Amino acid sequence: MTDKIVLFDGWCNLCGRTIRFIQKYDRSHQLSFIPIQSEKGQELIESFQLDPIETDSVIYFEKDISYIKSEAFFRIANNLGGFFKMMAVFRILPQKFSDWIYDVIAKNRYNWFGKKEVCMIISRQTKQPETLSGPSSKLH
Question: Domain range holding 97?
Answer without folding.
Answer: 4-133
